[in-house]
Amino acid sequence: MHQIGTTLTQFILEEQRKYSGATGEFSCVLNDIALACKKIAALTSKGDLIGVLGSAGSENVQGEEQKKMDIITNDVMIEALSRGHTAALASEEMDEVYNLPKHIPRGHYLVTFDPLDGSSNMDVNVSVGTIFSIIKAPEGVTNPTAADFMQPGTTQVAAGYCLYGPSAIMVLTTGKGVNMFTLDKDCGEFLLTREDVKIPADTKEFAINVSNQRYWEPPMQRYIGECLAGVEGVRGKDFNMRWVASMVAEIHRILTRGGIFIYPMDSKMKAAGKTGKLRLMYEANPMGFIVEQAGGMASTAYERIMEIQPSDLHQRVPVVMGSRNEVELVVGYHTNR
Ligand code: AHM
Ligand code: MG
């Protein structure tokens, strides 16, 4: 138990003290990320005042339009994580693994991140977020390659996100539950505001982009159809729907009051040779780890996300995560056909 109001830095150090062999390197990585998130929170809140909205006129490796803020926030993350505590980085916004410049000492951690998830929301002043995942570099590897990142989500030592909404909130797991820290701009610190957050097992709220409905597989048609049927249908209850188009905001809502978030596989993606919309290394694994640590469930509708053996840095997967009983139902519809 930590006292509400404990700073993120104090929290990290108090946790570090529990491990006699701890070198402090892992704590430093978390501190580096917290600093980057503070800088990104300041940039997002200034928005149009500093001319950071709109497109950068380039595409990322996945052929998606890059926003100015995708590039700026990626640079902020790289700068913060180039302090000698990491071995290499990988980002949704970079084609290849980022190897640190030669003069920077090498640490033992690999960090993957989506520097600004939901970045299209920036232009309309709606919530965005930074997502990160930390794994260990294989023993003895000093210049990691993409192959060294190909570890299933179960190997994550920490994961988190920072939501830039009405307030900036850092949500963190190191595998011992989920804690939330709200940025107090007056003192420039993330302060512990919620400890050991748990997702209710049941919910009456779903989040899915219904504009893709005609492309969904039959089990997903069935599940959402039953939700929409309301009290008169087999579920016997009315459901509410939300779609922020920012996974960070959706998962944060689910951690706060329950719900299910779905970005399913569909026939349009299949025809285009895609294996899903969201990225395993930057979105699905870290969010899956957080959701599981909060007592929820994270699946592709067929298998546990965290057990997928990655084969590509930018691999995409279908995502179904949130309230346990609801995710179980969706998985059941897909696997017991
Ligand atoms: P991004 O990383 O390029 O911002 O894309 C991921 C986002 C998620 O945050 C969100 O759930 C989804 O894409 C929104 O998709 P859609 O365009 O179908 O609304
Ligand atoms: Mg993203």
From TrEMBL:
Entry binding sites for Mg(2+) 2: D114, D117, E283
Ligase is among the record's keywords: no
Record-listed Mg(2+) 1 binding positions: E92, D114, L116
Source taxon at top rank: Bacteria
TM regions (residue ranges): none
Localization terms from the record: Cytoplasm
Record-given protein name: Fructose-1,6-bisphosphatase class 1
Source species: Thiothrix unzii
